[in-house]
Amino acid sequence: MPQLPPDLLTRLPEPASLAELTEIAAKAYGAPSATHVAAAPGSQILVAQVAFLLARGRAAVLAPTYAEHARVVELAGHNVIEVADVGQCDGARIAIVVNPNNPDGRIVAKDALLALADRLRRRGGLLLVDEAFMDVAAEGASLADHVEHDNIVVLRSFGKFYGLAGLRLSFVLASPQITARLAAALGPWPVSGAALAIGAKALADTVWRETTRASLTEQAARLDGLLEAARLEVIGGTSLFRLVRTAEAERLFRQLGKSGIIVRRFAEQPIWLRFGLPGGEPEWQRLRSALNSRG
How far apart are alpha carbons 230 and 13 in whole angstroms? Predict the structure, then answer.
């Protein structure tokens, strides 16, 4: 974490700092230019703002995924349907795909997304791709280099990969016409001075990014080993989280909670649990002990 000058918290953010961050973000995420990028205090406000830009119609959400996406799009007046395949998104006013997906890590191929965007364009529709976990995906999977198209919008989350969710910093990558409208809607100070400074410093550090990607891959493999040794079936995830399937999900959820370990459960999929990476060696050992003692 960089040392922050006190006036970042006592003064309004400077426009020059916002411009610097968008330049750095465009380079880090592979957008054509800074005019294709706008910063925001989290992705959810961007989902809502994009939905409000469009005439009301059908919104197709590739599910299962974040429930919040469907909720905010519905609040914007769209008729939301959940679909299991991108082929079912044809004819929608807006199609929303989380890629890689949460909680199962599903990846929709880039060619399939571009083909969907083309089909949507013919009917005046827009493709919104939430790439919150793209930092840990394979190179070349992002649609960031295609946002010059006027119906492709990409969201990138800073907090997931950098472990700073509380900073509330995300980016929208889209055509300059769309980013200008979204920036105007968000106002002159869309994110805090601290977010501008930390985001610019972190996104410019390519060495840290590549080192961390490699470390996360190793940690995810280690977590898989722990889970599989505990007879839990790993069915998906990313290098930031792993999804398991077990008939004992409810009981395991409660047992882990008694050890101070919180995992994510799913009302719609009661045999699923999502595990995040332990924070340090003591947490790794606590998880190992809890899994070994469950009987």
Answer: 49
CA dihedral (56, 57, 60, 66) in degrees, to 10, reads 20
Tell me how far apart the alpha carbons of residues 290 and 266 are, in angstroms, rounded to a whole number.
21
d(CA 15, CA 231) in angstroms, rounded, equals 53
In angstroms, the CA 202 to CA 172 distance is 18
| Closest by CA position to 69, among listed 94, 40, 48 | 48
Residue burial 157-172, b: 16+ Cβ < 10 Å; e: rest: bbbbbbebeebbbbbb
pLDDT of res. 295: 60
CB 213 within 8 A of CB 240: no
Please tell me the distance from the alpha carbon of residue 62 to that of residue 95, in angstroms, as a whole number: 8
Q: Reduced to 3 DSSP states, what percent helix, strand and coil does the chain have, rounded to the nearest 5?
A: 50, 20, 35
Per-residue DSSP letter, 166: G
pLDDT digits (tens, 9 = 90+) for 233-280: 999 999 999 999 999 999 999 999 999 999 999 999 999 999 999 999
Indicate the length of the chain as a whole number.
295
Please give the domain boundaries of the chain with CATH numbers for all domains.
7-204 (3.40.640.10), 207-292 (3.90.1150.10)
